[in-house]
Amino acid sequence: MAEQGVKFKVCSDNQAGLLRLRTLSDNPGQDNQIRAIKATKAIRAKGAEVELIWVPGHCDIPGNELADKLAKEATAQLPEADATSFAFLGIRINQLKRQEIRKTLSGLKPSEIQESYRNIYTWKISSKISLPIGTRREQASSFFQLKLGHGFLKSHLHRIGVTQSNRCLCGKKETPKHLLLECPRYRTQRAVLEEKIRNQIRVKELNLPLLLHTKVGIESTLAFLKETKICTRTWHVQREEEREEEHEEEQVGEREEERGEEQEEGQEEEREEEEGESDRD
Ligand SMILES: [Zn+2]
């Protein structure tokens, strides 16, 4: 079966499992993981390809029979990766979007709601998830991860047991909100993002519904993601390496401190010995 030119597609809605197979992990390896990686290597050695495809689960969408039906069809047909995941992401995103808009509006006074609807309409909330034509796959993927709170986000990786920490390199909890609106590491790019939006619409401050659900917001956010590479594989690998380097430096620092302390102790002992000698005189 495994020969030159053959492509295997492994579809799963177990994102934790898939991530463990292709993500740098700081947890000790498990038997199944090692076996799967060995099998993949053997298949690749024969010139065939293996592709891991995440088909988003649907169990957390109550009563969504359409998603359920589509999931079954997708598993039966093993369609193209993009087509599959994007269709499902669309369904889930629309669900989340409605929830978020409802939540945003329910926090407002009745007099403000009408106003908000009008404001939102001027932002042109699209009824379906459509990214501008020409959006690169990499940015589209990052965008969906931030929208769903899944993928290379530390808060997510930690929740599913892939990483030991849920912290960003800056030390705060790494969530979509943190990366898009707060992290000091992206201050410069965020200023550009904010300016882009303010040039088009009047807003008090940036917020997630604006960035992830509105036409103006989506366009500007995609540009921000292109600059920062947030939630791309390269970004994730690089920051894990940076984190490891920092960790190593810390350890070297600690070792040097320990050595310093040992020296001081040694000197004290010498002094005590000298004092002891002078006592005997
Ligand atoms: Zn941060």
pLDDT averaged over residues: 71
Residue share in helices?
Answer: 55-70%
| Biggest beta sheet attributes | 2 strands, parallel
Q: What class do helices, strands and sheet pairing give?
A: mainly alpha
The N- and C-terminal alpha carbons lie at a distance of 91 Å
Radius of gyration: 26 Å
Strand line-up in the sheet with most strands: 1-2
Strand proportion = under 5%
Question: What are the defining features of this structure?
Answer:
mainly alpha, globular, binds zinc ion
What can you see in these coordinates?
The chain is mainly alpha-helical and 281 residues long. It has helices at 15-22, 31-45, 65-77, 81-106, 110-122, 137-148, 154-159, 176-182, 187-198, 208-213, 215-228, 233-280; strands at residues 7-12, 49-54. Helix 9 packs antiparallel against helix 11. The chain has 12 helices and 2 strands, in the order E-H-H-E-H-H-H-H-H-H-H-H-H-H. Helices cover 64% and strands 4% of the residues. Residues 57-64, 74-84, 113-127 and 274-281 have low confidence and may be disordered. The radius of gyration is 26 Å and the shape is globular. The structure holds zinc ion. Zinc ion (ZN) is lined by residues 168, 170, 172, 178, 183, 185.
Short description:
Helices cover 64% and strands 4% of the residues.
Give the topology, please.
Elements: E1 7-12, H1 15-22, H2 31-45, E2 49-54, H3 65-77, H4 81-106, H5 110-122, H6 137-148, H7 154-159, H8 176-182, H9 187-198, H10 208-213, H11 215-228, H12 233-280
Parallel strand pairs: 1-2
Helix pairs in contact: 6-11, 9-11
The chain binds zinc ion.
Residues 168, 170, 172, 178, 183, 185 line the site of zinc ion.
